[in-house]
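Regression test case RT-17, inverse folding.

Input:
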């Protein structure tokens, strides 16, 4: 049994109840943080996860809502946590994080060392007897990617931010759970078509789920800046019934 704790479920602009999307995956002795927006230590503490033990982090791309908490997390591990942190990402994010570490002087000895694994040319970038993690390029920004976690006989695919693409999902299949960008409803994207070139709408997702898979869907990355947007997203996914797992910030799921 693995568990996922959602630290945030919003898009770039948080709402009162939802902060930027990030989550923690835990299985046996493995703990992974996937994306790292603001106040990570505080959110991890609220979720009863020891922030000092977050040593493996995946950054799916270099946009602020997925990366800006990294320096805070390194800073919070001063003095108490000498074991190095390993960040799995691609060149644009690695370059920004290295620059930030230099700017904030987080390379001094009281902070944990940070190692980088550039996953750009890799498919499977982590593997042991009970966990395998695969990178799948998506359609969002320079060198952005989603990740597939295979643990025991189960798996999930996290799309990260992406334009909707059946081809990406075909590459990621099969999976038991799909954690997917569900930024807004189709009516929002009709008003803002440019955003749909980088993100997925709830209607695209529900059509795919009905036709191409019997997996469960965990929609995330909600942009709820317009009135009743969350209700509109829910309505577009409602045809999937109990196959939709609608999560709140701080919520933990056993998968
Ligand atoms: Zn985002
Ligand atoms: Zn993004």
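Golden output:
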């Amino acid at each position: 049994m693995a568990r996922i704790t959602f630290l945030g479920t919003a898009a770039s602009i948080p709402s009162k109840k939802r902060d930027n999307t990030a989550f923690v995956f835990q299985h046996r002795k493995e703990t992974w943080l996937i994306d790292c927006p603001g106040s990570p230590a505080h959110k991890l503490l609220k979720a009863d996860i020891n922030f000092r033990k977050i040593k493996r982090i995946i950054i799916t791309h270099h946009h602020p809502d997925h990366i800006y908490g990294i320096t805070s997390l390194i800073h919070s591990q001063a003095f108490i946590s000498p074991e190095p942190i390993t960040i799995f990402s691609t060149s644009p994010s690695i370059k920004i994080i290295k620059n930030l570490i230099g700017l904030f002087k987080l390379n001094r000895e009281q902070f944990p060392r940070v190692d980088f694994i550039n996953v750009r040319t890799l498919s499977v970038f982590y593997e042991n007897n009970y966990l395998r993690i695969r990178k799948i390029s998506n359609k969002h920004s320079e060198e952005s990617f989603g990740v597939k976690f295979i643990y025991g006989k189960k798996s999930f695919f996290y799309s990260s931010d992406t334009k909707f693409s059946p081809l990406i999902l075909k590459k990621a299949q099969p999976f038991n759970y799909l954690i997917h960008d569900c930024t807004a409803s189709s009516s929002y994207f009709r008003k803002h078509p440019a955003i749909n070139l980088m993100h997925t709408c709830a209607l695209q997702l529900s059509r795919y789920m009905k036709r191409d898979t019997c997996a469960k869907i965990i929609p995330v990355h909600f942009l709820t800046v317009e009135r009743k947007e969350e209700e509109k997203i829910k309505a577009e996914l409602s045809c999937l019934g109990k196959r939709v797992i609608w999560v709140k910030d701080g919520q933990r799921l056993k998968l």
